[in-house]
Amino acid sequence: MNVTTETGDLMQRQSTLCEWPRWLAALLLWCGLALQAQATTAPALTNVYLYESPLTQAFFSANNAFYEPMKDRWKTYLRQSTNSFKEVTRTNLLAGLKPGVLVLGSAVLLDAQERKAIENFANAGGSLLITWGTGARDAKGRWTGYGFIESLLNMKVVGKVLVDDNELFVNTFGNGPISWGLPAGERIFLGEIAETPLRVQAPNLAARYFNWQRFPKPKNNNGAVAFHEQGDSRRVYLGFSEASWDYDERSRLPKLFDSIMAWLMHEVVVTKAAWPHGDTSAQLLEMDTEAKFENALNFAKELDSADIKGTFYSLTSIALQNRDIVEQLAQKHEIGYHGEVHFGYKGKTEAAQAERLNLMASEMKNIMGSRATQDVTGFRAPTESWDATTEILLRQLGVRHHVADPASSEARLPFFSRSEPALLAAQAIVVLPRTQMDDLNYLGLKLSTDKASELIGLDFDYLHEAGALGVLSVHSQNYGPQGLMTVLTPPYVKRLQAHRKDVWAASGAEIADWWRMRERVQFQDGKLIGDQFTFVVQAPGQVKGVTFMVTHASAHASVNQVLPVPSGLPQPEIVKLDDWRSVLVFNQSLPPGSYTYKLGF
User: Fold this and answer.
1) 260 phi and psi angles, rounded to 5 deg
2) How far is CA 122 from the centre of its chain?
3) Cis before residue 406, ω within 30 degrees of 0?
4) What is the pLDDT of residues 422-444, one digit of tens each?
5) pLDDT tens sequence across 458-473
6) Whole-prediction pTM value?
7) Residue from 515, 539, 500 nearest 428 by CA
8) Which pLDDT band holds residue 33 (cuts at 50, 70, 90)?
9) CA–CA separation, 521 vs 270, rounded Å?
10) pLDDT tens digits, 253-282
11) Please, which pLDDT band fits residue 15 given cuts at 50, 70 and 90?
């Protein structure tokens, strides 16, 4: 168990009390815990305020724009998500508000008195939710810049997201303190709007701007959502205006706002983490093994040097000619299907696809014998061309997962195939979306080695901070002595080695098996009820490594105790991730049943 400095100091004090009468030592220790909790835990907030800026209303009207719809969007959300909220006027604000959450929705014009009242509210422990260009103009509409929100949020506005930039998507961080309501890397379209989104630099981000392909541009100017805690005050900034909400067809933004509001209100939230054993992201290293099949051994050598198990999706017609190589690869790595020849399946008739896939399976069985049925359970479509018919036929052949194209998912996490909705998770194929650039992308861009090295490093950083699944795909024909990926892969593997404590590098089959195992843990993410949370492990159980994330009510008020109710249940390990999150890791294999735990902070 990771022990925080505070807990370690407490244990040292406890040992010095051993000479005292036990009852007195216990009393003093309890008092120390209570005082510590008082010092680090901010009170929960219940009041929610929506500010109506009269100056902004007048300015928008004078410029043939509309401020009212922006407020209305917040009114609709707050009515649905809170028990009650209050619309406050300038008079209310200047008179002073009780601690709560103050929403400043694109309040572009603020006079000196309003600014001072907002600062006083925050300094007294109030939380702020600020959007777009709040406070960028003074009482007379003159441009004053972003200094007001920059000082409140400890951030810097570094530019605008112009239409020509083509970075009109926000990607959120999964299992983040203010973004836990959405999957890792969820792609949300902001639309082309008059209120141009703002880019920020900040120590604490929860989302970034990307284009649709998630091209990894430098990270010093693509922050979209920032958060900051100062004393008892919590603050969140959204770089895009309320006008973007109209483009959120899947209603993902309300889930983000729910997460933000919980954090601003100092609520403790428990969520089921995406990855096992406390790891915060995952990585699959795979090779499409086609022409120049022998280069697969060079790729395997790099993986072996780091003790990483990869997956080799093989064209069976070529694998037949390279049996010895397949045997060598299979000793340490996963062998998967890549079709029988390098032509796609999408749009072909069921009969045509079935004939080809059956031939593929037959050729693999010719190579690996009876092991093919048990060990070869992964697939990657040639040219990333597949459809629902492909998935249904693959499942009937015993395939358990497949690596899909970037368009297959809006998030950067595995998901269960939607081709057969009636199937339970235990039977459905697990889809692993390749949302990471591959060697063909780098080669197509005609990048220098240095530029490609910079981009692949950024890609890793973005995947990891988002808590996502990375799929680094290379092709055997591009892994020769002079190949670009032959240069880029070794440093990338070393980077994974440096992140062994928080990145799970695994084969496609291992990731798919975990995703099914994780699905057997039934839990509703959300606010901690009292001081307890409960989850259920469904049959057949055997769930090992399941991890729960706990957001802290305030910075440094981390989890320091987890008690099973009743006693005797497996004890999780506590790991503090940062000031705002701890994780509870169940390293034991959990059988079916209900599990309840009481948390102490």
Assistant:
1) -65, -45
2) 29
3) no
4) 999 999 999 999 999 999 999 99
5) 999 999 999 999 999 9
6) 0.91
7) 515
8) very low
9) 14
10) 999 999 999 999 999 999 999 999 999 999
11) very low
Domains recognised in the chain with CATH numbers: 5-34 (no CATH), 47-266 (3.40.50.880), 278-514 (3.20.20.370), 520-600 (no CATH)
Token match 């639309």: residue?
191
Q: Which two tokens stand for residue 426?
A: 């235990």
Q: Residue 351 contacts by C-beta under 8 Å, 6 or more apart in sequence?
A: none
Classify strands 311-314 and 334-337 as parallel, antiparallel or unpaired.
Answer: parallel
- What's the length of the chain? 601
Q: What is the DSSP string of 89-115?
A: -HHHHHH---SEEEEE-S--B--HHHH
Give the helix/strand (H/E) hosting 366: helix 350-368
Q: Quick check: 190 and 593 in contact, CB under 8 A?
A: no
Token pair of 153 as six digits = 């949020």
DSSP 443: H
- AA identity, residue 215: F
Distances (CA, A) of 537 to 513, 528, 532, 556, 573: 16, 19, 17, 31, 18
Mean pLDDT value across residues 30-50: 64
Which tokens go with 145? 């810049």
- Contact between 227 and 249 under an 8 Å Cβ cutoff? The reply is no
* CB distance 437 to 473 below 8 Å: no
pLDDT of 299: 98
Dig out the tokens for 59 from the structure. Answer: 């300015």
Structure tokens at 461: 């950083």
pLDDT surpassing 60 at residue 343:
yes
